[in-house]
Amino acid sequence: MPTRLIDIHPHIISPDTVRYPITPLGGKRSEWSHQRPVDFEGLVAAMDAAGIGKAAIVHSSTTYGYNNAYLADAIAGHHDRFAGVFSVDVRAADAPAQIRHWVDRGLSGLRLFAAGSTVKSSQAWISDPQTFPAWECCRELNLPVAISMRVEGLAYLAEIIARFPTVRIIIDHLLLSPIADGPPYHASAGLFELARHPNIYLKLTTNNIRRAHEGLATPETFFGKLVESFGSERIAWGSNFPNEPGTLAQIVREAQEMLAFLAPADLQNIFAHTATTLYPSLTDH
């Protein structure tokens, strides 16, 4: 197993609702964020217990909407161990200014919610021309963009890839692409077709780990095909803690067990090196 662990998808929730008011997207808060919240100090303790060295913390927009203040405040002074991934309304006229504001506050990645949020809507907005200034800003800043979406939205993402081919795009949760049909995974053809775009990266999370035996799927055939198609240097692991039930140490063990069949170099990429490619501040100096 790799000796270095970097988590690119934990979340934090502050107990201070006065300083950091609850303002979820669409007015509906995610269940996990009030049923099992973990604040920054709690995450640090969980990471230490699980042997995780560094993390790119993902802002909870289903708790705070586009107010990334808690994330920025929490990691201030801790950028040797933590990066921050923020959210803005990329269709807003001031989106580029908002992106620059949060980058100036020390955050280093953008996340978009096209599916998987408490807000249900069409994924067509992904390629809305109103978003182009935000994408251009990310290109100028060399800012990676994570996106939570589903297979049905890939046609819209294709327009963005064609227009902004140098922006590194991270596909959250592997699209939650269906795998129950088993090899050769025809139902996930859209996911595997993304491999031809060198700027596309994959975020392999606990949801994917826990579904690895669904139907005819196995970890060896599905994750093995992912590595063969994309290369492990474009795949990074994220816990989705505390969204996913269980301790962070348990989540780490599950991921390591499911991926243990991979070569040591591939494991090192997935559990650490790819994260430093996406978020260079997490590189050991």
Keywords:
alpha/beta; 12 helices; 12% strand; 8 strands; eight-stranded parallel β-sheet; 285 residues
Map the helices and strands.
Layout: E1 6-7, H1 31-35, H2 40-50, E2 54-58, H3 61-64, H4 69-75, E3 82-86, H5 95-104, E4 109-113, H6 132-141, E5 145-148, H7 154-163, E6 169-171, H8 189-193, E7 200-205, H9 206-210, H10 219-230, E8 235-238, H11 248-258, H12 264-278
Parallel strand pairs: 1-2, 2-3, 3-4, 4-5, 5-6, 6-7, 7-8
Backbone structural class: alpha/beta
- Number of beta-strand segments: 8
Number of helices: 12
Please summarize the sheet with the most strands. 8 strands, parallel
Low-confidence segments: none
Spell the H/E element sequence. EHHEHHEHEHEHEHEHHEHH
For the termini, the CA-CA separation is: 22 Å
Mean pLDDT: 95
Strand order of the largest sheet: 1-2-3-4-5-6-7-8
Work out the strand percent. 5-15%
In which range does the helix fraction lie?
A: 25-40%
What's the Cα radius of gyration?
18 Å
- Write down the overall geometry: globular
